[in-house]
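Backbone-to-sequence.
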């Protein structure tokens, strides 16, 4: 590799802008060590909390695939089927903070120059929970974490004061971020839920609370399909299912739209893009919309649990891209950051064959006589 793949994001130096996102690929010390050995520039730990976590019986995550002849989406494995999405109803890490802290310390000792971000989650709405956020923040940074990612985005927490329920409330986003910032010496990123109408509102609230970056998307709320033979949900416990999270290729355009809403509203702020990335082409879309780093989950889960081939492809893709643009004077990924952000405009600003005859969908203004052919 010839090009300089390093980048600085929220003041932290990265060997490359590619991270494993908070999820099964990052839930153990051995996985995270393997991820760094494979070349990932950063890793965000599986979300760490203080409250007891017990996952459902059976599979916590599955993959949906589709076939070219009928576009049927199903978890059933069939020959010739291509990945459509991942679906999960896994909660945050079921390991305690005390389990995590020595592991964060050891990982940083083994890889002092790679970036380890601790994803954390507590509740909201009272001082006790704000103190829980601060304790998680202090303990993880004291153990050596280079940054904190606040999980305001898990779509299936049972508690009303946690996860995406925080990310749907701009007041809570602001208050929790501010509380963590009081305790933090390292950068604070907020991972927002895409399940709101105007995500830039919650992003703005996080920035007001002092957030150094916004991360999006977590998985989109969704339910699995019903098997037409058995009439059962393809994933269920005792016939029952709850809303879970969709990730992978199916969410890529949805997540890009959410990201564009935020990067357009806050062009000078930092963003980390997630959703449907398995190759450099998809990562580039996020970068061109204004992201400084990107994160990967589903593609890595399907590639030896930590994505050694995915990171190889991402690095080779970025290297080739920078080589291709060397003559333009580009020296790093920053040169392409946000280059296509301003190409997203209102529908009325898109050229149409009869521009003079179209008034953005409104009737012709009163007093304005339309041309009459004689
Ligand atoms: C099984 C599973 C578990 C996850 N657990 C977490 C988590 O603990 N914390 C978190 O912030 N995101 C979690 N995520 C969300 C991912 O980090 C990521 O935001 C999402 O899967 C979209 O990325 P992708 O399209 O690359 O999968 C999880 C995703 C999956 C599939």
């Amino acid at each position: 590799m010839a090009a300089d793949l390093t980048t600085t994001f929220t003041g932290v130096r990265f060997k490359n802008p590619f991270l494993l996102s908070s999820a099964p690929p990052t839930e153990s010390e051995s996985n995270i060590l393997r991820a760094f050995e494979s070349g990932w520039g950063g890793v965000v730990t599986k979300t760490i909390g203080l409250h007891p976590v017990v996952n459902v019986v059976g599979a916590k995550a599955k993959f949906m695939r589709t076939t070219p002849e009928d576009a049927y989406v199903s978890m059933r494995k069939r020959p010739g089927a291509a990945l459509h999405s991942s679906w999960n109803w896994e909660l945050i890490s079921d390991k305690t903070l005390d389990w995590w802290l020595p592991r964060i310390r050891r990982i940083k000792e083994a890889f002092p120059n790679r970036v380890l971000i601790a994803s954390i989650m507590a509740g909201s709405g009272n001082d006790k929970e704000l103190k829980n956020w601060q304790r998680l923040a202090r303990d993880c940074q004291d153990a050596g974490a280079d940054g904190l990612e606040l999980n305001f985005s898990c779509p299936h927490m049972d508690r009303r004061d946690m996860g995406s329920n925080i990310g749907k409330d701009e007041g809570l986003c602001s208050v929790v971020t501010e509380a963590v910032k009081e305790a933090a010496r390292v950068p604070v990123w907020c991972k927002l839920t895409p399940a709101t109408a105007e995500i830039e509102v919650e992003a703005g609230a996080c920035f007001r609370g002092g957030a150094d970056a916004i991360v999006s998307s977590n998985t989109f709320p969704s339910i699995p399909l019903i098997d037409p033979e058995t009439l059962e949900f393809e994933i269920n416990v005792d016939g029952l299912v709850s809303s879970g999270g969709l990730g992978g290729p199916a969410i890529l355009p949805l997540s890009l739209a959410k990201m564009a809403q935020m990067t357009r509203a806050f062009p000078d702020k930092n963003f980390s893009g997630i959703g449907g990335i398995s190759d450099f082409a998809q990562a580039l879309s996020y970068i061109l919309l204004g992201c400084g780093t990107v994160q990967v989950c589903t593609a890595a889960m399907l590639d030896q649990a930590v994505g050694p081939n995915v990171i190889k492809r991402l690095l080779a893709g970025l290297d080739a891209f920078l080589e291709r643009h060397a003559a333009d004077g580009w020296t790093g990924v920053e040169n392409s950051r946000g280059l296509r952000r301003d190409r997203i405009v209102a529908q009325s600003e898109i050229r149409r064959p009869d521009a003079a005859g179209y008034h953005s969908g409104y009737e012709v203004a009163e007093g304005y006589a339309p041309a009459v052919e004689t």
